[in-house]
Structure formats: structure tokens, C-alpha cells
């Protein structure tokens, strides 16, 4: 009996090295600090976090458990039973902590949730006991036969865990939406919307949960009440997050969300912040990366009003952030429907955008220039666009964009710079069908710059898309001015098939430049 106790203690001491934190959490949450009821309640109340903090804690704990379960599966595959057991004990502790934490801040829990919690905790205990038995067995044949049972138990734990998290998050979303719909208090509504926004930031799955529970409907209801005008920017920002998923888009269509956004954008009594956040929602729902925008039939009905309001917002933007949101929405709309380009031309949008680019306070990042050059590239398919470009000194701007470089080295900024280079080359290639634009580009030494981008991988950050666009632009300009290229450049970059020139440039060493 003494030997068994010693072995158990030693094993516990070994496991403790790997699970000190969560073991402490379990003990602290399971044992009352004070025996006096009033004192204990006071302690609990004083340590309460906001709903948002509690949700963040829950999600963090869920992420840890999910990661641990994945690692257990990996160690199990390699039959590393010591690690499997210690990690199983750790998961057991984390699960108990998570359940205790949730029950501490949850206002109410359903019977279904309590049943799932019990199932999960029981299954975790069973899992821990199972792996401990495996640890005590040295017979390889027995261990091999037990492995499938352990795998099955692991799968069940993961299944129960997934169901519980889904139920908890759905319950929390329902609580927040109930507060938004039923509270007449500005303060309570603001807190609920803020917590909902934080929840939506955790990923597409949570956005789907919120959308399915009526989040889009509830938020648009706020946007239709004048008494909540001061909450419009925050509400619209939350809507933009939720509408990244198909369920959110369907809900938006059902509640005439496009019409509501158009009304907000065209109402001059709203603040610039409200207009900017409405533009952000438009940018989200018209994103060319989404595959489920075809059903937005009501958008076409309101497109002219929306485009007009967005152009005005670009023109009157007081900051780079406002301009970025408005121009991003316009850029996406030019992909969404070709009629938008004609509307932009009628509104003198080209002149407004080119003028904004000369103001470094407004167009201050590669991200903003990316939006502007996207609009120019999509508008350049129209024949009337060439004269607008010439009048607004647009060729000079496109030339400058060919030199776009990241100052920070941030991957997102580097990618934006590549897009600016690529789209400026595409725009030049399209516009150079007009002799006047081609002459202006040649006079501004676009040909040497395009050659440099083709031959020097570092100049284009090794981007193949920039290379293809530059080759296309170079070939278009070479038709107008063949004498502007040296014979070597002509023979390698213009005369061969584009694919051959591309392969040649991608295989070039930097020493050739």
C-alpha cells in the first residue's frame, strides 16, 4: 500500500511540472477562499470582468484546449504514452477551468449546456484514466489494441468540446443581441455592440453564429433609430465584420440593408465617421474576393446614389483613413459592375482622385494608392478615360507608382506596393492605345523604368504579376516608340512571345542588371 502511494505521489510530481498553472486554477476555482458566505460573494463580485473580457478568456482557454487535443493526436500517433498522459491530464484541468470560468460569469445556462459540460468532464476523466492504464502497460500488443480505443475517446472528447463551445458562443451571442433589442439605454446598448464587435473579430465561424442569431437584423434596427445616432459608427463597423460571411450577406439583403446604407451615405446630417463606416460596409459586401455577392440585386438599384456619395466622401475626406474606406468601396464597386465606371466618369471622379493623390495628408499609404490605381485601371477600359488622365496629370502619377516601395518591410505593405506597381503598369498598357497618353508616358521615361522592373527582380520584389504587367506595358509603348529601346531589350523583352520573355526575366540573376 505504501509503495502504491509513493508511486502515485511521484507520478503526480512529474505531471505537476507540466500543468502547474492550470492545476492552480482548478484548485482556486473549486475551493472557497472564505467560509463566510457574504465575504465570498463580495470577493467574486469585485473580481468580475466585463462580458468582453470573459468572452476573450473563454476563447483563449478554448484555443489552448483545441491546440492540446491536436498535439495529443500527434503524440498518440508516435506512441509516446508518457507525453500523451501528461497532456491528457493538462487538458482535463483546462476543461474544468473553462467550465468553472464560464459558469462564474454566465447569467444563465440551459439544461442542454449543463448536460454537455457533464458529458465533457466525465469523458475527460475517463480519457485520463485510460491513458494512465496505457502508461502502466508495457506489452506492445496490448498497447496497440488500446490505441484505437484511446483514439476513439479522443475523438469523442473533441466532439463534445466542439459542441459545448458552439453552444456557449451561441448563448453569449443571443444574450448580447437580446440586450441590443430590448434595452432602451444608450450605455447598455453601446456595451453590447462593443462586445458583439469583439466576438465578430474572432473569425468567420463566430460571424456565422451572430448572423444566424439575427445579429444583422438587430444592428440595422439600431441604424434606423435616430435616438441611437451616436452609435451608428460603432454599429456599422460591427456590421462590416459580420458581413464577411454569406449568412450575414443574406440577412443584409432581407432587411433592405443596402437601402439603409444608401440613406446614411446620402444624408448630409450624419457625421463623417458615420459616412466612413457606411463606406466600410459597402467595401466589405462588394469585395471581389467574395463569391456570394451575386444576390445583391438591390445594390444595382441604389448604385448611382451610393457611388455619388462615395465620390463626395473622397473629395471631402479630412483624413487618410476616411479616404481609404471611401476609395476602397469605389474600387470594389468598379469590379462589381462595369456601369460604375461610366458613373464615375460622369462625376469627374478621375479628377478628384488624381487631385487627392497630390495631397500626402490624404493619400498617405500604399493601401490608399492601391485603391486609387485599382479605380484607374478599371476605368481605363473606357475610351473617354484617356483625355481625363492627360488633363489630370495622371500619367505622371502612374509613373511615380511604378517606383512604389515599402518603407517598413511589413509583408502587408510590401504586397500593397506590388499591387500598386502591377496595376499602374496595367493602366499604362490599357491607356497607351491612345497616342497622346503613349507619347506622355515615353516623355516621362516610362520605358527605362519598365525595363528596370522586368530585368531586376528586387525592383519588383520578385513579383511575377508585376513582371507580366510591365512586359505588356512595355510592348504597347514599343509599338509607338521602337527607337526608345536598345536592341538587346527589344530582342529579349518585346520581340519574343510574352511567355518566353517572362521565362527569361524570371531566370535572370541580379548580376545581369
TrEMBL record:
Residues 61-513 form the Protein inscuteable homologue C-terminal domain. GO terms for molecular function: cytoskeletal anchor activity. One of its GO terms (biological process) is establishment of mitotic spindle orientation. It holds the Pfam family Insc_C. CDD domains: INSC_LBD. GO terms for cellular component: apical cortex. Residues 4-48 form the Protein inscuteable homologue LGN-binding domain. It comes from the Eukaryota. This is INSC protein.
Amino acid at each position: 500500500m505504501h509503495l502504491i502511494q509513493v508511486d502515485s505521489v511521484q507520478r503526480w510530481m512529474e505531471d505537476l511540472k507540466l500543468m502547474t498553472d492550470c492545476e492552480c486554477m482548478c484548485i482556486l476555482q473549486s475551493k472557497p477562499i472564505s467560509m463566510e458566505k457574504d465575504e465570498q460573494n463580495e470577493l467574486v463580485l469585485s473580481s468580475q470582468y466585463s462580458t468582453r473580457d470573459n468572452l476573450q478568456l473563454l476563447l483563449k482557454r478554448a484555443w489552448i484546449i483545441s491546440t492540446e487535443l491536436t498535439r495529443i493526436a500527434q503524440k498518440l500517433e508516435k506512441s509516446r504514452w508518457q507525453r500523451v498522459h501528461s497532456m491528457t491530464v493538462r487538458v482535463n484541468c483546462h476543461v474544468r477551468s473553462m467550465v468553472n470560468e464560464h459558469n462564474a460569469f454566465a447569467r444563465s445556462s440551459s439544461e442542454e449546456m449543463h448536460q454537455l459540460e457533464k458529458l465533457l468532464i466525465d469523458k475527460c476523466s475517463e480519457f485520463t484514466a485510460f491513458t494512465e492504464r496505457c502508461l502502466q502497460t508495457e506489452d506492445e500488443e496490448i498497447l496497440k489494441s488500446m490505441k484505437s480505443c484511446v483514439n476513439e475517446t479522443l475523438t469523442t472528447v473533441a466532439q463534445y468540446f466542439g459542441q459545448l463551445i458552439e453552444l456557449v458562443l451561441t448563448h453569449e451571442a443571443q444574450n448580447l443581441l437580446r440586450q441590443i433589442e430590448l434595452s432602451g439605454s444608450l450605455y447598455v446598448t453601446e456595451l453590447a455592440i462593443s462586445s458583439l464587435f469583439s466576438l465578430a473579430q474572432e473569425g468567420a465561424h463566430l460571424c456565422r453564429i451572430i448572423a444566424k442569431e439575427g445579429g444583422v437584423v438587430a444592428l440595422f434596427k439600431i441604424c434606423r433609430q435616430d435616438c441611437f445616432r451616436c452609435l451608428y459608427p460603432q454599429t456599422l463597423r460591427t456590421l462590416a465584420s459580420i458581413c464577411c460571411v454569406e449568412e450575414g450577406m443574406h440577412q443584409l439583403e432581407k432587411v433592405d440593408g443596402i437601402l439603409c446604407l444608401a440613406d446614411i451615405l446620402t444624408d448630409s446630417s450624419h457625421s463623417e465617421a458615420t459616412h466612413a463606416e457606411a463606406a466600410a460596409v459597402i467595401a466589405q459586401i462588394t469585395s471581389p474576393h467574395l463569391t456570394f455577392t451575386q444576390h445583391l440585386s438591390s445594390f444595382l438599384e441604389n448604385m448611382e446614389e451610393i457611388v455619388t456619395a462615395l465620390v463626395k466622401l473622397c473629395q471631402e475626406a479630412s483624413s487618410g483613413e476616411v479616404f481609404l474606406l471611401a476609395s476602397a468601396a469605389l474600387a470594389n464597386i468598379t469590379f462589381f459592375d462595369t456601369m460604375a465606371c461610366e458613373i464615375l466618369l460622369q462625376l469627374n471622379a478621375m479628377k478628384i482622385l488624381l487631385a487627392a493623390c497630390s495631397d500626402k495628408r490624404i493619400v498617405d499609404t500604399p493601401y490608399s494608392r492601391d485603391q486609387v490605381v485599382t479605380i484607374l485601371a478599371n476605368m481605363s477600359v473606357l475610351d473617354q478615360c484617356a483625355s481625363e488622365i492627360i488633363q489630370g496629370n495622371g500619367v505622371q502619377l502612374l509613373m511615380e507608382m511604378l517606383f512604389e516601395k515599402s518603407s517598413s518591410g511589413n509583408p502587408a505593405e510590401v504586397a500593397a506596393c506590388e499591387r500598386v506597381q502591377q496595376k499602374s503598369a496595367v493602366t499604362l498598357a490599357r491607356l497607351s492605345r491612345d497616342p497622346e497618353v503613349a507619347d506622355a508616358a515615353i516623355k516621362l521615361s516610362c520605358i527605362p523604368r519598365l525595363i528596370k522592373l522586368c530585368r531586376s527582380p528586387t525592383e519588383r520584389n520578385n513579383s511575377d504579376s508585376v513582371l507580366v504587367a510591365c512586359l505588356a506595358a512595355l510592348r504597347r509603348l514599343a509599338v509607338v516608340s521602337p527607337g526608345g529601346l536598345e536592341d538587346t531589350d527589344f530582342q529579349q523583352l518585346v520581340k519574343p512571345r510574352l511567355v518566353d520573355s517572362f521565362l527569361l526575366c524570371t531566370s535572370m540573376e541580379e548580376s545581369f542588371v
